[in-house]
Write a structure and sequence with these properties.
The termini are far apart. A hairpin with a 2-residue loop joins strand 3 (about 50) and strand 4 (about 55). Helix content is about 15%, strand content about 30%. The chain is of the alpha/beta class. It folds into two domains: about 5-105, Rossmann fold; about 105-230, UDP N-Acetylglucosamine Acyltransferase, domain 1, CATH 2.160.10. It is built from three helices and 25 strands. Strands 7-10-13-16-19-22-24-25 form an eight-stranded mixed β-sheet, with no helix packed on it. A six-stranded parallel β-sheet has the order 8-11-14-17-20-23, with no helix packed on it.
């Protein structure tokens, strides 16, 4: 992509996470990136503006915006921490079949990302995050403030690594897994899909899919069905 190109961006959801992303975008603009926020899409907001930009309606109204910009590329970024809800939003947007709408990847100017790191579309890398070498970050992930991901680690799609998390080397975080604030995942650990590692937990053994673990060392405290939303109560 041409570094001088204008990024026309839609933020999907208008809540606390979106406010954080708005501040990241202002930092990127100050750093010289040409970003125009066209507005926010949220099925549950009925006011007219948010963080200085218009609320465009719900996902169903995105088509109207895209028609107005049919000769221009529009990008979007999701702003919701719940992994299953984020995956559902991406599915709904994909079903629009809009050729001029693509996910956008945000990397804050203060993040440190090694040259050998691969980052998927739709992912947000927050301020002071560190991703060292030969790591692979999937699509629509969140790598939050002051988190650290070591070498040869894989984050599959829709993973959320919260603030202050430390992820060791040769780790795999399965699709949709959620690592709570301040948690540690030690080297050579496999975390199954849609599992939750609680705030401050220390995962020293593999974590199966569809469970919540907590404590130091982390132990299973809850099992949840494949279709259930992850419980985030311990992180509020």
């Amino acid at each position: 992509m041409d570094e001088g190109a204008i990024i026309r961006l839609v933020i999907v959801c208008a809540g606390g996470r979106a406010s954080e992303i708005a501040s990241y975008l202002r930092d990127l603009q100050i750093a010289g990136q040409k970003i125009v926020v066209l507005g926010y899409v949220d099925d549950h907001r009925f006011d007219t503006t948010f963080e200085g930009a218009p609320i465009l309606g719900g996902v169903g109204q995105l088509g109207e915006l895209l028609d107005r910009h049919q000769d221009q590329q529009v990008h979007y970024l999701t702003a919701i921490s719940d992994n299953r809800a984020r995956a559902d939003l991406v599915r709904r947007i994909d079903e629009l079949g809009a050729s001029n709408l693509k996910p956008w990847t945000l990397c804050h100017p203060t993040a440190i990302v090694g040259q050998s790191v691969e980052v998927g579309i739709g992912t947000c890398i927050a301020p002071s995050a560190v991703i060292t070498a030969h790591a692979t970050i999937g699509e629509h992930c969140m790598v939050n403030v002051m988190s650290s991901i070591s070498h040869d680690t894989v984050l599959e799609s829709f993973v959320n690594v919260n603030a202050g998390v430390s992820v060791g080397a040769h780790v795999t975080l399965g699709q949709g897994s959620f690592v709570g604030p301040g948690a540690t995942v030690t080297n050579d650990i496999q975390v199954g899909e849609w599992s939750v590692i609680g705030a401050g937990a220390v995962a020293t053994d593999d974590v199966p899919s569809h469970v919540t673990v907590a404590g130091a060392p982390a132990r299973i405290v809850q099992r949840h069905g494949r279709g259930m939303r992850q419980s985030l109560l311990m992180f509020k």
